[in-house]
Amino acid sequence: MTPEEFFAERAKEAPRFASSECARVFDLWLQHLGHPSALDPSPYAFDSDAEAEVFLSRLPLPIMVARAMRMAGYRMTKAPKTGDVGVIAMKADDGIMVVCAVRGSRLWLFRGDKGISAAGNYARVVGAWSVAP
Asked: Which of 18, 19, 74, 101 is positioned for an S-S bond with 69, CB 3.0–4.6 A?
C-alpha cells in the first residue's frame, strides 16, 4: 500500500485526537509497514490530547519525536524517500505549524485537526527517518 492509499483509508475514519492526530497516524504508518511503534514503548505515549499537550508544553515536537524514534531503534536520513517519516514545518495562518508526516510520492502527508493534508516543497524537513521498504 502506498502512503497515498494509506492516507485515503485514514480519511474514512473519524480522528481519535485533534491536535495530536498527526503523531498517531505517523505511528500507525510505522506499524502498517511491520515496524514497531515508536510511541508505545516511549515515555511520550499518550491517550488523549490533554496528555499530548502536557508533553508538548515540556518539549518541542521535533525533539520528542527524535527521542522516541531513537529509543525505538530508527535511523535518521538526510534524503527521505517515499514511505519514510519525518517532522516537517511550514507556514500556517497563525504562525508556523510543525507536524509528523509520511513522505508520499510527491508530497508530505499528514493528518491534522482539519483532516488529511499535504505539504509540498515549501515544507521544511526538521528531521526524517528511513522506514520505507
From this structure: 74
